[in-house]
Design goal:
The chain is mainly α and 221 residues long. It has one domain (2-209). 42% of the residues lie in helices and 0% in strands. The chain has 8 helices and no strands. α1 (2-15) packs across α3, α3 (60-70) crosses α5 and α6 packs across α7. The termini are far apart.
């Protein structure tokens, strides 16, 4: 449908630049499977033909577009007296921007940002992990669980209201801690990290819902 196509095009313009080859010169072996799979699914693409730029920070606009594209968030079955636009929902946005539709689709699927957010700013590890887990748990219908909390060395740096989401993300192996046992919640999230986390979340979604991800035959080459 038109709304989904628009979101997909927005993600392509933002996360792709140009290029459709299923290989990038700047992706390490650890991230290759995730990035290749997401590219095959049309969720992400390179910044150029041979470059994915995995170390580049992810912006809020890019993060929301990723979630909309990966989880097929839309408003196709919703009815409005007046069709909503991004400026109805957020202060520092443009209705003509490439991310505008994604912000609307995300908002009405309960993926919401602060009204005054600057969507060009880089998103932190904590912020994306929380948005990702909220989206995954709704889509997969994950139940409430009792878990033994992971020992996060810098857990006091995580916003209290987000600690549960981070713990569940660790439990489900969506995210991992750094080698020193810290999560570093306030660090900016990179494109490569976002791809890994998103790939892991989709694997769990497909496992819970009985669907499959796109093949990744060339991911190990």
């Amino acid at each position: 449908m038109k709304t989904v196509i628009t979101a997909a095009l927005s993600a392509t313009l933002l996360l792709s630049g140009t290029g459709s080859a299923l290989a990038f010169d700047d992706v390490n072996q650890q991230q290759k499977q995730a990035i290749t799979s997401l590219q095959q699914q049309g969720v992400i693409a390179g910044m150029s033909k041979d470059s994915f730029q995995p170390e580049t920070d992810l912006s809020y606009a890019q993060a929301i577009t990723l979630l909309v594209n990966a989880y097929d968030l839309n408003i196709d079955n919703m009815r409005f007296i007046k069709m909503p636009v991004a400026t109805d929902l957020y202060t520092h946005v443009s209705d003509k921007a490439w991310y505008a539709d994604a912000l609307v689709f995300a908002y009405y699927n309960d993926v919401k940002l602060d009204k005054s957010v600057n969507v060009a700013d880089s998103i932190s590890r904590e912020q994306f992990a929380t948005l990702l887990m909220d989206t995954l748990e709704r889509k997969a219908g994950l139940p409430m669980i009792n878990l033994v909390p992971a020992d996060i060395k810098d857990e006091s740096d995580i916003t209290a209201g987000n600690q549960g989401a981070i713990q569940r993300a660790l439990h489900y192996k969506i995210i991992t801690l750094h080698e020193d046992g810290t999560f570093q919640p306030n660090e900016k999230l990179t494109r490569g990290e976002a791809a890994e986390w998103l790939y892991n979340s989709l694997q769990l979604l497909h496992e819970k819902t009985g669907t499959k991800q796109a093949p990744t035959e060339d991911a190990g080459q």
